[in-house]
């Protein structure tokens, strides 16, 4: 996921490089308050661990191997702000010592792997685990958090790649940087991580959480999240407001054609597709409620309804898991590093 | 000089008719990374054009070149920038072959794989150069792919020039002099040191496992072992952070970081910076006003 120089145009990397500075300042302030003078060795070792965990070859299937990123795991151990700085430092060292990841693309790599991944992973972990989780619930939460954390980071990278043809092209429409549009770049990055790297990240994170819970459970003490969760909701609301940007992408996502679009493209409709294509009629087809005329408003409302459904289902699952755990949850000491 | 230990992994005998086990592969990868850092330090300490520059000036000029490569769209200018990285590498005592191989393996190969579909009619329609049905190579597609690959190669080449011709300590001094807070510089310095230490630990774990195993083990067994070792490294990292902090306190550390900055730019550095800026302006000027896309 390390983006080298050359794939992102100046309009993108300049914005992302500038965006990480306030994030680092806020993160630095938070961990300085929590860790005081201990921050230097703790962050250095956190960054070193982040680097080294990527060097482990993990067997996957068919004799192949992959490696985990570990950003969610580091966020679980150190807290999300400290993880943000630790993974950022690791990425800077990778770029400046090993030439892995571009110099101009440092902002993009930090946003994807040191901001999106640990924050999404950590807050999902907190949301599912709650304040006092049982071992099984903690491991499940770590798996889901790390899986969705890396998928979210991949989607962010896909968006960065996918907007390049929209914002930087020649007069004849040729892409000047990464050449694939959103409807190719985002599914390509997302699918690769949903099917391969996501499960790997989840298995590794869950395994390490199991071992740490057995050998050194103090490392897994729950980090405070009440206040930062408000920021999560604020960020979530911001993303919802930005959803009408999705209407900028023209055409239909690759592989998501309707029967009529497919017929127009290849000249016929496969029999099997024709047979099962009409089995289900969506409540809000094409993210455009039939009662709303303005497509931008319709798209936004579809996003609100979809997000509310996802949050609601997650909340219900969390409640059910909490009820099932009942009094079996083992005590964990309060507080944390960040 | 590179310690003898750094060479051990690659010379050790391989098991099972030459097929390397997972432990051996990981140990070799880590050994390669450690050796690369040590070789970089050797190269950065040897005489050469880039090594003689003030690290601040070198860092600023290389960032200027990397940014210029991102602004340029003409294939001819991009190729000239790639050639410039090779000329600078040669003038700094870096073997052109090893430089090109590293650029190719770190970014070029990935660039080719990523841009290959864009060269076809499937993604970029246009005049067909090589007819292969829906995967026919088109002229505009080939131009897009060539532009992306050369830009990536130029960016990776400039980045590699910094990595291979600057000692890590000098790079940290340059960052400090350029306004990066002392706390961040100190953390970066400690990070690199701890990375090397942890890498050695992880390499030894894998070599120990390799030496104790008669067969490669199943994927499930290996996965369990790897995860357990990762957890060990996590615990070791946090324990070391405590130990390092205690050592810092016992030496009188009270939160103040000593500044590493004692750099002085010479006339040569100023000439280099001016020449670099002029070259960048020239490249962008040629790209925008003279050469076609």
Task: Give a verbal description of the structure.
With 338 residues, chain A is mainly alpha-helical. Chain A has twelve helices and two strands. Chain A has a single domain, classed as Arp2/3 complex 21 kDa subunit ARPC3. Chain A has helices at residues 10-35, 39-53, 71-78, 80-97, 106-129, 135-162, 164-167, 182-215, 226-242, 259-266, 271-276, 295-325, and strands at residues 58-59, 65-66. A two-stranded antiparallel sheet of chain A has the order 1-2. In chain A, α3 (71-78) packs across α4 and α3 crosses α5. Chain A is globular, with a radius of gyration of 22 Å. Chain B is 71% helix and 2% strand. Chain B is built from ten helices and two strands. Chain B has a two-stranded antiparallel sheet. Classes of the chains: A mainly alpha (338), B mainly alpha (293). Chains A and B meet through α1, α2, β1, α4 and α8 of A and α2, α3, α5, α6 and α8 of B.
What are the SSEs and their pairings?
The complex is a heterodimer of chains A (338) and B (293).
Chain A: H1 10-35, H2 39-53, E1 58-59, E2 65-66, H3 71-78, H4 80-97, H5 106-129, H6 135-162, H7 164-167, H8 182-215, H9 226-242, H10 259-266, H11 271-276, H12 295-325
Antiparallel strand pairs in A: 1-2
Helix pairs in contact in A: 1-4, 1-5, 2-4, 3-4, 3-5, 3-6, 4-5, 5-6, 6-8
Chain B: H1 5-11, H2 22-45, H3 55-71, H4 75-91, H5 96-115, E1 128-130, E2 137-138, H6 139-165, H7 168-177, H8 182-212, H9 219-250, H10 267-290
Antiparallel strand pairs in B: 1-2
Helix pairs in contact in B: 1-2, 2-8, 3-6, 3-7, 3-10, 4-6, 5-6, 7-8
What distinguishing features does this structure have?
heterodimer, A: 338 residues, mainly alpha, Arp2/3 complex 21 kDa subunit ARPC3, two-stranded antiparallel ribbon, 12 helices, 65% helix, B: 293 residues, 2 domains, two-stranded antiparallel sheet, 10 helices, 2% strand, flat, disordered N terminus
């Amino acid at each position: 996921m390390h983006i080298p120089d050359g794939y992102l145009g100046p309009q993108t990397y300049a914005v992302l490089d500038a965006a990480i500075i306030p994030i680092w300042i806020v993160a630095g302030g938070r961990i300085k308050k929590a860790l005081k003078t201990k921050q230097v060795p703790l962050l250095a070792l956190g960054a070193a661990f982040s680097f080294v965990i990527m060097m482990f070859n993990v067997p996957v299937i068919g004799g192949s191997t992959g490696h985990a990123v570990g950003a969610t795991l580091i966020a679980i151990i150190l807290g999300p702000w400290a993880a943000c700085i630790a993974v950022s430092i690791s990425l800077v060292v990778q770029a400046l010592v090993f030439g892995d990841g571009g110099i101009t693309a440092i902002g993009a790599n930090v946003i994807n792997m040191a901001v999106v991944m640990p924050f999404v992973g950590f807050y999902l972990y907190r949301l599912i685990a709650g304040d006092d989780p049982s071992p099984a619930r903690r491991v499940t939460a770590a798996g889901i958090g790390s899986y969705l954390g890396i998928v979210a980071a991949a989607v962010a990278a896909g968006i960065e790649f996918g907007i390049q043809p929209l914002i930087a092209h020649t007069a004849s429409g040729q892409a000047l940087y990464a050449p694939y549009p959103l409807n190719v770049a985002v599914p390509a990055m997302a699918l690769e991580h949903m099917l391969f790297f996501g499960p790997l990240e989840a298995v590794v994170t869950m395994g390490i959480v199991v071992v740490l819970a057995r050998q050194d459970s103090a490392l897994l003490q729950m980090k405070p999240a009440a206040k930062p969760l408000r920021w999560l909701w604020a960020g979530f609301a911001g993303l919802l407001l930005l959803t009408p940007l999705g209407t900028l992408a023209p055409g239909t996502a690759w592989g998501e054609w309707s029967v009529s679009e497919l017929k127009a493209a290849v000249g016929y409709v496969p029999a099997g597709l024709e047979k099962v294509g009409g089995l289900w009629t969506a409540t809000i087809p094409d993210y455009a409620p039939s009662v709303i005329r303005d497509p931008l408003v319709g798209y936004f409302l579809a996003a609100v309804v979809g997000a509310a459904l996802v949050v609601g289902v997650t909340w219900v699952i969390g409640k059910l898991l909490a009820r099932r755990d009942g009094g079996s949850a083992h005590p964990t000491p309060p507080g944390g590093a960040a | 000089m590179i310690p003898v230990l750094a060479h051990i992994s690659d010379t050790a005998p391989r098991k099972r008719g030459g097929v390397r086990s997972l432990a051996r592969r990981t140990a070799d990868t880590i050994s390669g990374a450690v050796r690369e850092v040590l070789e970089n330090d050797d190269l950065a300490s040897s005489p050469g054009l880039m090594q003689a520059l003030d690290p601040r000036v070198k860092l600023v000029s290389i960032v200027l070149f990397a940014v210029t490569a991102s602004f340029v769209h003409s294939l001819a200018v991009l190729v000239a920038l790639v050639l410039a990285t090779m000329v600078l590498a040669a003038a700094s005592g870096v073997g052109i072959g090893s430089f090109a191989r590293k650029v190719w393996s770190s970014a070029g190969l990935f660039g080719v794989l990523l841009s290959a579909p864009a060269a076809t009619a499937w993604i970029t329609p246009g005049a067909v150069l090589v007819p292969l049905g829906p995967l026919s190579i088109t002229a505009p597609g080939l131009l897009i792919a060539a532009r992306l690959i050369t830009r990536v190669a130029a960016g990776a080449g400039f980045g590699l020039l910094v990595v291979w011709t600057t000692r890590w300590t000098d790079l940290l001094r340059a960052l400090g002099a350029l306004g990066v807070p002392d706390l961040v510089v100190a953390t970066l310095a400690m990070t690199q040191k701890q990375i090397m230490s942890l890498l050695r630990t992880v390499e030894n774990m894998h070599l120990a496992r390799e030496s104790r195993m008669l067969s490669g083990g199943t994927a499930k067994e290996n996965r369990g072992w790897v995860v357990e070792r990762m957890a060990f490294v996590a615990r070791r990292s946090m324990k070391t952070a405590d130990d390092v902090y205690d050592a810092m306190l016992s030496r009188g550390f009270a939160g103040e970081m000593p500044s590493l900055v004692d750099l002085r730019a010479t006339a040569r550095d100023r000439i280099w910076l001016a020449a670099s800026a002029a070259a960048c302006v020239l490249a962008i000027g040629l790209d925008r006003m003279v050469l076609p896309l």
